[in-house]
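Q: How would the C-alpha cells look for this protein?
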Amino acid sequence: METLKKASATSISTPVTIETTDPDLVELSGKHSYRDGDLGDIIPVNGKKFEILDTRYNDPSGLDAMTVQNIQTGEVSIIYQGTQAHKENGMQDIITDAQLTTDTPSIAQLEASEAYYKEMDELFGVSSVAGNSLGGPLAFSALRVNPDLRCVTFNPAPAPKNYFNPEQVYRNAINFYDQHDPLTSTTTPLGMQRVPGEVVTIEAGAAIISSMGSIHTGFKEGSITVRGITISTAADDHIVTSIWTGQTLTGESSTRIDVNLKNLDILSKGLVGASNDFGLAQSYMEKSEEIVLNEESIFTMRLETMISTFNDMIEDSIYDPVLKGITRAQSAITSEVSDWLSKLDTAEQHFQSINAILNSPPVELIEHIISVDISVESLFQEARDHINKFFLEVCSLSNGIAHINEDVIPSLLSEAQNKVDDFLVNEMRDHYTIVNSNTEKVSQQIVDFGEKVVNFKEELEKRDLTSALSIKMQANAISDIVKIPGKSDFLLEESNHLLLGMKLKELVLESSFNHISNLTHILIGVPAAAIASIVGVIETAVKGISLAISKVFDFSHSISLPASLFPQFQEIEQKLKSLANSITRPLNDIGSMLGGVRDSFFRLSIYLPDLLREFKPYLDDAIFTIINYNDINVLNLFAMTQLKELKILLQDVSFQLSEHSAKSIEALGETSDLVIENLDMLTSQIKKVTFE
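A: Here is the predicted structure in C-alpha cell form.
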C-alpha cells in the first residue's frame, strides 16, 4: 500500500460544497482507475478535482484499487479496478471472475477488497466505494461491513451466490447497466444479475460491434464520430441527475425541493442545458436527413451500379470466352456462330467434291457390289438447322437479359414492379421532413419553457416574493404570471410515412428479390438450359458427319476388288483422303468450341439461384446504401437516447412543480408535461426510421 502522508484529517473533513455525484464515481471507475495513477496525482472529473490518497496495485490476490478525495468536499472514495488480465497478477482476476459464478464461500480477492476498505475507512473515513466490471463485486464487499455505505457500480459482474443477506436493504447502493453491454446481455438472461441496491439501465452507446469494449468500461474511447459529428459515449454523460440536487434520476420521485427564487434560477439554467442537449438530438436528425437527400441524389448511380453488378455476375459465371459479352448487345457469340456456319459451309463444299467421286461409275459399282449407300447429300442440314436454332435462342436470351437490365432492375426500388421510382428513399425523405419540422417546434417549445421560468422569477422579484413560504402564502396573487399552456401552441405534425417502420426496407427487398428471381428463371434460367441441350444436339450432328466420312474409307478395306479396278480405286482413295482432311479440320474446330459453350450454359442454368443469392446484398445496397443507412441508424439511436434522457429530466421538473397551490407554478409544470408529450411523439417518429 502507498498512502499520501500529507492528507490530514482536517483537509478530509472540509465542509461539503460540490458533492461527489454518481456520474463522478462512474467516471472514476470506468476511466481513471485503469490508469494506475500515482500518489498525489490530481484527477479532473466533471469540473471537480480528486486527489489520489492511496493505491493498492498488484496485490497477490489480484486486487487493484485506489483511494481518492474530492478536494472541494473532502469526500473519500475507494475505486476498484475491473479485470486486468495483462497485469502482474492478472491471472488472479481471471480466477476471481470464474469464482463469482459459483457459491464459493471464500474468494481471496473479495476478502482482500473488504480488508482494504476497513483499512482506508479507519485511516480516512470512506464515504463511498465504486467499481466497474469485476470492480463491482469488489466494491460490494464493503457493504458486508457497512450496509449503509454509498456504493456505485457500472456494468458490474455478479456477486457470488448467497453473498448478501436477502433481508438486508442497501438503500445507498446503485448499479448502472448499459443496455448494450455484452456482459450484461450475457448475465441477465441467466439470472446472474446479483447486485445489491437499485438497478438503473442507461444507454451510453448504441449497439456497435466496434465499440463493445468502450461500452463495458464506459470510457475506453469516450466518443464516436459519425459524418463529422462527435457523439459522446462516456457513461457519465448518460446518467441523468436532478438539476437541483445532483441526485440520480431513475424515473421514481426524487426529493422534493422548495420552489423559491434560487431554485427557479437553477431551473432556468437547467433548461438552457436541456435546450443544448436537445440541440444535439436535433443535429443528429438534420444529419440523417442530409444523408437521405444525398441518397436521393445518387438514385441513377445506384441503379447503374446494380445493373452493372448483375451483368458482371452473369459474365463471371460463364467461363467460356466465346460467350463473354452476352449481357451486351454486341457479343462475341454473333461472330462465333457466323464462323461456325462458315466452317460448316467449307466442310460441305469439300464433301460435295467427295460426292462427285462417290457418284462416279467405279464407286457406284462398288456400292452396288457391297450393297452400302454412302451418299452424303443431307448430312450437313441437321447441323446447320441446329446452329441457326442455337443462334435464335441465344438472341432470345440476350433480349431477356436486356429486358432485365432496362425494365426489371430499374423497377426493383419501387413499391410496385410496374414503375421506376425510389420508393424507400422517398418515404424516408418525406418522413424526415416532418420529423425535423417537429424537432424545430420542440426546440422552440423548450426555449419558450425556459423563458416562462425566467419571466416568472423576475415577476416574483418585482413583487418581493423571494422565499418558498412567501410564494405559497401569495399563491392566488401570482396566479396570473404564467398561463396554463394550450396543447395547440406547439402541435406536432403526424407522419403517414413509414407506417411499417424500417420493416418496409425488408419488405421492399424481399418483394424485389422474389420478382427478379422469378423473371431471371424465366428469361435466363430456362433458355440457358434449352441452349445447353441444343448445343448437345449440334455436337451429335457434327460427330455424325465425321462418322459418315470414316465410313467412306472403312468400306474399301472390307472387300476384295477385281484386279482391273484396284489401280483406279487406289487413286480415288487418295483423293478422298485429301478431301476428308479438308472436311474434318473445320468440323474439329467447331467441335472444340461446343463443349465449353454447352458447359457454360448448363452451369448458368444450374447455378442461377446461387448467383441471385449473391446478388441480393447488392440489391439491398441499391435500395438504400448500407453504409449510409448504418450511419443514419447510429444517429437515430443516439438521438432517441438524448430524448429519453431529456424526458427523465423533465419528468422530475414536472414532479417538483406539481401539486402546488400557486397556479402559475402548476402552469409551469403543465408546460413541462406538454414538452414530455412531444418528446414521446418525436421519439416514436424517429423510431420508425430506426433498426434497434
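The first strand starts at residue 2 and ends at 3.

DSSP finds 18 helices and eleven strands in the chain.

Upvote if useful.
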